[in-house]
Each structure stands twice: as C-alpha cells, then as structure tokens.
Amino acid sequence: MATSHSGLTVLVAGGASDSHTWNLMFLQLLLEERGHRVENLGPCVPPRLLVERCQLLQPELVVIGSVNGHGYRDGEAAVRALRTEPGTAHIAAVIGGKLGVDGVRDEARRHRLLDAGFSAVFDDGDLDAFTRYLSTLTNSAGARADRPSGRAAV
Amino acid sequence: MNAQATAPRPRSFGGFVAERAAAGALVVQPRMGFSDPALMRRGLERTKFAAATTVGTITLDSYTRLGEHAAARKAVAEGTALNGYPIVAHDASTTRAVLAGLLDETFPVQVRHGSARPQQIIRTLTTLGLDATEGGPVSYCLPYGRTPLRESIDSWAESCELLAALAGPDRTPHLESFGGCMLGQLCPPGLLVALSVLEALFFTRHGLTSVSLSYAQQTDRAMDEEAVRALRRLAAQLLPAGTDWHIVLYTYMGVFPSSARGARALLEAAAELAVATGAQRLIVKTATEAHRIPGIEDNVRALEAAAATAAAADRGCADSGEADSAVYAEARALVDAVLELDDDPGRALAAAFRRGYLDVPYCLHPDNAGRSRSYLDEGHRLRWASVGRMPIAADPAPDRRARMTPDRLLHALTSVARTYDH
C-alpha cells in the first residue's frame, strides 16, 4: 500500500460512446486501495469534457476504460484532444479494456493509440501490467518531486 | 387486469406477446444489432424462423444512441463495424429493405437503443412501420452517460407522446421499461422493481396503453422469484385499468460464465424462472457472451435452447404472488414515497433523485445521489450496506463484505459466472 503522500491524482473516465460503469468503478476502488486520489467522471465522457476536467484538476494520470468495442476510435479521439491542448498535453494517459468489437488484439490499431499519445495500452484483464505501470509512475513522480519514493505501490 | 384478459390486438407487440402467452408459450428475444444491413436482415430472418416463439430485435449502435449520427455515417462509409444498427444514419429505404417480408403480425420487431434523448430515433422508427421500443427516463439516462435527468424526463415524455400518436384501430404502440435492469447487476431487487413500475406509470401517463416491465435475473433464484412476483403485483395494483402489460425477464446481465456449459445453464435457469413466475417474454444471452459480441447463430442457439427449456419447465402457482415478500415491501415503500412527491410521475422521479429517495448503488451519474451501497451476502442475496436517504432499511447486520474493496467488487461481479462455470 502506498503512503498517501506518494499517491497520484488520477482521473478515471469511460470512452465517449461507452456506457459501461463497472470497469470504471473497479478501477476507482483499485486505485484508491493503492493510495491514489480518484476523480471518476463515469461513462460516456466526450473529449471536450475530459480536457476541461484535466485542465482544472491537473491529474498525474488519466485512465480510460473501454469495453463497448469502440475503444480504438474513442480512445484515439480522447488522447488526441489531451495532446492538442497546451494545459493537458503533458498529462500521462493510458487506456485498457475490450477495445474492438471482435475481441481480437489489433496490433496496428494498438500502435496507432500509442502514436496518438497514450503511454500504455492494456489488454482486457491485464491488471498486472496496469499495476506495474502504476508503480513505475508513482516512483518516478516521487523522484521528480525530489522526495523519498517510499514503498512501491503494489 | 392482466394482459391475458385483453383481447388480442393485431399488429401489436404487446398483443402478440399476450396471445402467445395465452397459448402457453414464452416469447424469447435476442439482443442483436449489426451495422451491415445485410447482416441485420439475416439476423432478423434467422430469429423469425428459429424453432421458438420469437420477436425480433434491432439494437442500435452507441453513436446513434448518443445522437452522433455524423459519426455513425462516417463509420458506415469507412466500413468500420459499429456495435449496432445505425437506424438514423442508414437511409429509410435501406431499413425498409431490411424489414421487408419479415416484420408482420407474426413477427413484431422491437428497437433497442439506450438513448436519454430518443426523439429522433422514435421519429425514425415510426416512419419505418415500427412501433415497439424500450427505455425510460431513468433507466436510459442514469447508467448510460451524462445527460441531465430532468432533460431525459422531458425527452422521454415527448418520445412517449410521439410513439402513442401511432395508435389506431389496427395498431397499438408498445414501450418497455428498462428500469429492472439498472447497471445490470448488484442493484438490490426492491429498487429495480420500483423503477420498472415507476417508469411504466410514466409511460401510461404520457399516452401509452401497452407497456412491459422488466427485471434482470440476479444472483439468487428465490430472491428473483420474489422480485418478478412483486413486479406483477405492483403492475396489477398501480397501472391504469385497461392497460395491456406484461413482464419481460432479462437473462443475467452481469459478467457471464465463460464456459459454454455454464452459459447455457444460466440461460436455462432464466427460462425456468420466467415460466415459474409468469413472465411472458425472455431476453436471452448466448454461450459466447463472455468472449465477444454474439453472432447470429449464437443467438439462434440461445433462442432455441431457452424455448426448449421453457416448454419443459414447471409453471408457478399463480397465488404465490400475493404474499408480502421482503422485495415487495421494499419496492412498495419506494414507489409510494416517490408518488407522494408529485402527481406527475416525471416530476416525482426528478424530485426523488434530487432528494435521494431513489439512489442507484455504484451509479456514477451526476444526478444520482451516490450514497447507497449494496453487497452480496453469503447466501447470494443482494443487500443494502447503505441506503443513503432512501425510505427503506439497510441490512441490520451487514457483515465485513459490506465495505466494498476492488477484490470484493470483482468477487461480487463474478459470483454468478463462477457458480455456473464450476
């Protein structure tokens, strides 16, 4: 468990067309259990709203969860919007879930998401990779702030 | 008055279900939508001619649900598959060709969408010879995005009136409340039943004379039986005299078993529950549900399996609906508290959410109070750990599971899948 001072401010959101909630609720509980502060925007977050909330909150991480099969399209639009705005271009963003309608991993579209500005793209259910990413980010955030990085977040 | 007492009405979704129920058949229905018109037609055709008493479904895609018809058109033009049929983006002639020779008095088709602002969808479907759809001002708003509840209530009032205006001597439009399916899982049944009843009352207030009330199969058979019986009893007590109504049961909507055997057993349990409790229509789920959006043949297999199970299932005792079960008492308390707030069901719903008299657990919508929490007890019944300001009691002795952690949430969300995959 991370100590609270080493926790990140994380904004959780669903894709613009994705109405699913449970994945977002799970992400919130998972992040909170690891000592991070979460603002959960819930499902169906349009890129404009995501940008506005990021400008206001200045989170250290944006987590987009998508399970409705439109993750490639919605995710790309969301991260391009973040990268375009000067106030949000620097904020780390990751996406995960069931990203396509056919349940098959699409390497080309995955790379397109990374090229568009995501730091990581997680396969559905790959929580280990997500929590490893969180640890790395927590530690580097701690190091950047020039304070002891403390224990790992997981 | 129950649906069976109403004379069959031609070319009517509700009339068809009532007539088939009177003949002893459970109507089964897929959730099915494809962006490719040829595939959509093939899906309807295979549904119509499946070895089961069926009605057809056109499930719309997410862009159409959100009113982003330009995005839907772009995806169609690019050949990108959408997660449903974009009924507004496709030309009317395209959709007429999809339906030609399939939509008739033996095969009503329901449009399913999930929109909090459905006017354009309703206008489109009414020009295509369709008159059955589903939704509701709460159930198509709170779980699905960020549309303000007040706006959804106004939009749904207008939509009900658009749909009701189709009524004529040969036509009875039908609207189903999705209120019994809020968030799919982990919502205690008293609240699901109350929302379904309140939305059905809203529909009848805005002119519909044929409605259905939904309930989604949850985690425990006895609890689910209480819920469906409570729903029937409240509908009989509260809907205006002469309303044609029926109960639609949804096969479990949460995390589905990943094994074909487990998925089939869960579907069969839903069919048995429907028959035992007098639900007249069942929405099926397929064996591939846990892995991908189901294809046409997955759905046909599910429809036929559910129909075969229903045909062999024991019919419940009609009188068992009269006892005051815990679910009935809770649903009745919620419905009464809401209806006391205002004579108009729409204004009453808005006030109830504002005050937290209705509070859907784990729902992240800005207009939901978000103070209620549910959990799954040792006996697989859904309980309230916290009721917020709802006029009902929390479980008096919540055990340690009541405090939700990610592991417990995952455990609760996957408990049905684990039971059936075992």
Structure description:
The complex is a heterodimer of chains A (154) and B (422). Chain A has 154 residues and is of the alpha/beta class. Chain A has one domain: Cobalamin-binding domain (Rossmann fold), CATH 3.40.50.280. Chain A has helices at residues 22-33, 47-57, 71-84, 107-116, 127-144; strands at residues 9-14, 37-40, 61-66, 92-97, 120-123. In chain A, strand 1, helix 1 (22-33) and strand 2 (37-40) form a beta-alpha-beta unit. With 422 residues, chain B is of the alpha/beta class. Chain B has one domain (3-321): Alpha-Beta Barrel (TIM Barrel). Chain B is built from 15 helices and ten strands. In chain B, helix 2 runs parallel beside helix 11 (296-312) and helix 7 (149-164) packs antiparallel against helix 13. The model of chain B is unreliable at 1-9 (pLDDT under 50).
Topology:
The complex is a heterodimer of chains A (154) and B (422).
Chain A: E1 9-14, H1 22-33, E2 37-40, H2 47-57, E3 61-66, H3 71-84, E4 92-97, H4 107-116, E5 120-123, H5 127-144
Parallel strand pairs in A: 1-2, 1-3, 3-4, 4-5
Chain B: H1 13-22, E1 27-29, H2 37-48, E2 56-59, H3 62-65, H4 69-78, H5 92-99, E3 109-112, H6 119-126, E4 132-135, H7 149-164, E5 174-177, H8 189-205, E6 210-216, H9 221-238, E7 244-250, H10 260-277, E8 281-283, H11 296-312, H12 326-339, H13 345-355, E9 372-376, E10 382-387, H14 406-413, H15 415-421
Parallel strand pairs in B: 1-8, 2-3, 3-4, 4-5, 5-6, 6-7, 7-8
Antiparallel strand pairs in B: 9-10
Helix pairs in contact in B: 2-5, 2-11, 6-7, 7-13, 8-9, 8-12, 9-10, 9-12, 10-11, 10-15
Key descriptive features of the protein:
heterodimer, A: 154 residues, alpha/beta, Rossmann fold, five-stranded parallel sheet, 5 helices, 5 strands, globular, disordered C terminus, B: 422 residues, TIM Barrel, eight-stranded parallel sheet, two-stranded antiparallel ribbon, 15 helices, 10 strands, disordered N terminus
